[in-house]
Design a protein that fits this description.
homotetramer, 338 residues, Dihydrodipicolinate Reductase, domain 2, Rossmann fold, 2 domains, alpha/beta, 15 strands
Chain lengths: 338, 338, 338, 338
């Protein structure tokens, strides 16, 4: 039996607690050996669900104590860089929740630092790439058995968002997932972004002007429209319809138990991302643990992907604010990330 | 332009009124020339919707007045025979609502009388044969492209029934439709009938013991189960699933506008037979009118089919009351109905 | 019984022949009294299916012979004006296949001529307004029970088009339907149009650059995206998804018989507009005949609607050719069309 | 961190190999410490996927070597008893693949032996109880929010079976799953069984007379019909439709990616039980491992449930061979299994 991987989880908020549960109770070959969190209350609560885990206020302390073989970062994006740097310098494999960092400049600093190592050590937590349906759709795209992919119609609808959710988060917190998963699906990077405004929902809290339609053009000519809609009240939906030359494919449709009552046939939709992407989250972590065990270290989007997403987000925010078609221009991809 | 067919509608209750509307407002080549109804109030109301129609208390009077080219019978089943006899004797084409007559003995009298004419003149109003989906399913059965038909799972669910609906009507008023349409679908007659009792619905009025499961075996070996369920509250459903050697086909599923709200994807079901079978009723009458114009006279189930259904109903009622597998034995089919 | 309406059908090509069959065999209260068509071969063939109809080479001759009570125009759009003018001058009710005329200038001439009559006499054949699902969706929009309508995602996919189908016909022959039905659905006129290009299908014949995405903004703020795609090979699809503040509704989904075979559950899609809109065509004609009988004359889109559609088409073609967001500016609506 | 459970897997055929993969690669808190298999070739192959596992020819040897904390039995049913006895005598927790034993007499011997322990130690591998949809349906039944459950329509269709699959296996190998899961769903035991024969599929190998319809009546009056069909060619389907007084619920419908091509909308069905019940198998093992860790030992169907299923199978085989309604009579349930 392989030695079980000692994972240090950085951040013991909702996302961190969820990952602790996943690693300890549904993942083979790993366990939570350390919780890194400055807030003592959160730490205590998280520690209850991670028997035997040591607790630290800083990642540097966990590294110094040789308490971890790998690091999972689940603090908010603006705090990623100060955790990434010491973890990279210690040569540890890292699963970093999305985004890599909040802007392309800091992301570029990280990819430069990472290139001092022998190979990529950072996997970014864009978990949609582990969703079974996205994977099936990607295979269809590659197989070309219905011809070339021409366009994608994507939808991302949330029941509601909090008062602290502001306009640019439509791009940086929500469309950000599409900026990662769509280039991966279509195997081509984003070259420009446009935003159009439909009628604004009266259910959005004051100051928020949404839904929006985001149009992205890929280098291979594929055009993508994304409906981004964060106060739909009626459910959580993340769907994509791929239009090929000779066929269509659609993922993310409601499934599960079917009911008839009161004159209606119905199927329950998802309430939030935890159920919609439950399998994706589990597979993401298991794949990453397996990749660390076999020395590959990264089994999903890497830091370069994270940098490209940061660029698309910057173009998206500009399109949101200024209108028009905003180009996305990236540095050439280093061989290190080939 | 062909002369328009003068139709006498016998019975001006709900069903008669519906046929009057259909003939005058949605049927090409025919109009209602006479309403035959002893109740003066009903007659007056119906006449409002049939401008120019004469009214009669008895079919004999309408015939004597030479007021009709064809007869549509929409009175309750126990009153069919006294209308059928004079209409047959006058040599008129007849569309007779189901059932032909309430029992096999009287049905046999009618088929004997009809055989004195040159060809069949009676069409029985089993309108399911005109439903587009039943027709498509029948073609699939005949085509055998998924192999032989092995069994059928049928369902007939009503939201509710009135207090006057009694136990044997489960067979004679409801399963009666399956006794006609299934032999037509599968091209083989019913040879025996069994009834099994699930748990009884507490929503059925006192004295009614339902739902029931009716099992019919056809001469060609196909086994049919029918869920007959008359107090489901939640909608009107008439569905059939055909199991072939190498495939399935299912008709009668909810269709139409799809909605998402309150976390659910839903499609509205039918509320009653008027919407579920609207097209079937319209096509039934148009086909019959066309058949009268071209001299065929009958474009659907004939009186012999009506007699076979009466036999199946008698076996069904016996199975309901006594249990066990009850055989259905018919006279040989006369060449007249070949 | 009301006297049957004598309809003169102008044009005996495929569309005219279809209308002749509909009027004579599936419509109550009307028959084809005249066929107006200069081509003797077409006339002869059409006359076979319209027993008793007179034939004329020109509409003026049919009017002079007092052979028609109403006119149905089924010649190509560029020939509409010379038929509309004498028919209007004769004060006849007219059902004119879409478009009213090929450009806004000629459409404006027609609406000016029509205003010399006591009320609108022209109905334009945008038959989608008679489709049951579009009607149901329109009621949902008006009811606001899921809140305000925010946007519409529409799709129009054809299996293929002929070699004579050229680039601007994407707008004038295909999106033209959306330009009529969407303002009617959303009760607000089109104010601007943009066209974006996805990857071009290699199945399109040379010179055709499609699919396209058409974005229309309505006066009430609703944003509409239309995928217009004319070589999809796999079926005929016309669908609309309405996004409300608190719910969704979707029309035009595949329905009908469900099949399982070879490891797949499937439902057949439509092959072309004749089956998808069969009910809409029938209801359009029956409604128009009824409107002529009751003196309303018009039961659907009128000539003013036809003029507005011509304006949207002109903006759409410009957007197709030049890019950018093209405004649609209309004359004020005369009270005559209120 | 809890000590990892050392599981001895008995039987290294297809099912055993699948469990070894599951325990070592997708299960938290357990690993395969021993493979018990007399066939050296199978043992060698299985050992490759279970690094560090010891191998034994007999369960007694593994127990004597203190190599296992718990036992998973994956040999054919007729070999269960000789493994169950020594494992029970050693006081080990056991996950025994279905059936417990091949007949009710031997099952009764096992439940008697098990009662010498302090609590139940055997869980029987009816994995459907761990399928998310079955669980959701069971909650609906218990909640009674659509009224009482009246009947169930179940379907079990296999693409094909091998030549060694003989007539009684329709009951003992296939319907056996329904005999466990349906009483659990409906919370009531089977009281009688009837079998009816539809037309026999010509695709069944000689000697096999199927499909069959199995009717089971539960103690609470619920009637269950099961279509058992093992040569359908077109896919693997295990579905259940529950009919309540005021509603329906249906599980096991095709889901996943939707495609349109060649004029059809389609969804892929399952090919076999490994994909249909992948989640159920994973959850079954994880739940059992967790139950062993927390001292509950059993987290699913126990040996008494296994005995009841054996009784139903005996009645089912009799019904298959002799016809009529065959009663199922069980011993009273000991408090030990309450």
């Amino acid at each position: 039996m392989t030695k079980s991987l000692r994972v240090g989880v950085v951040g013991a908020g909702a996302m961190g607690a969820d990952h602790i549960d996943r690693i300890n109770n549904r993942t083979s070959g790993a366990f939570v050996s350390a919780i890194v969190e400055p807030d003592a209350g959160r730490t205590a609560k998280a520690a209850e669900n991670a028997p035997g885990a040591q607790t630290f206020a800083k990642i540097e302390d966990a590294i110094a104590a040789d308490a971890v073989d790998a690091v999972l970062i689940a603090v908010p994006g603006q705090f990623h860089e100060p955790v990434l740097i010491p973890a990279l310098e210690a040569g540890l494999p890292i699963l970093c929740e999305k985004p890599l960092t909040p802007d392309s400049e800091s992301s570029l600093r990280i990819v430069e630092l990472e290139q001092k190592l022998d190979k990529p050590h950072i996997q970014v937590g864009f978990m949609r790439r582990f969703d079974p349906e996205y994977n099936e759709l990607r295979k269809l795209v590659a197989a070309k058995d219905a011809g070339e992919l021409l366009m994608l119609h994507a939808v991302h609808r949330n029941p509601t968002v909090g008062e602290n959710y502001h306009q640019s988060m439509l791009i940086t917190d929500s469309v950000v997932h599409e900026f990662d998963v769509i280039p991966w699906l279509a195997e081509s990077r984003v070259v420009n972004v446009e935003v159009r405004y439909p009628k604004t929902s009266s259910l959005s809290h004051s100051g928020l002007k949404e839904p929006i339609i985001v149009l992205m053009e890929l280098e291979n000519g594929v055009l993508v429209d994304v409906e981004m809609n964060v106060n739909v009240q009626f459910g959580y939906q993340v769907t994509t319809e791929a239009v090929f030359e000779q066929g269509l494919a659609r993922i993310g449709q409601p499934a599960g138990i079917q009911r008839w009552s009161a004159g209606q046939f119905s199927v329950k939709d998802h309430e939030d991302f935890t159920t919609r992407f439950a399998t994706a989250y589990d597979r993401q972590i298991q794949s990453w643990v397996n990749a660390v065990h076999d020395g590959t270290l990264v089994a999903g989007p890497n830091a370069w992907d994270g940098y490209l997403v940061a660029l698309s987000c910057e173009a998206g925010v500009k399109a949101l604010e200024e209108g028009g078609i905003i180009p996305v221009e990236a540095e050439p991809r280093p061989d290190f990330y080939a």
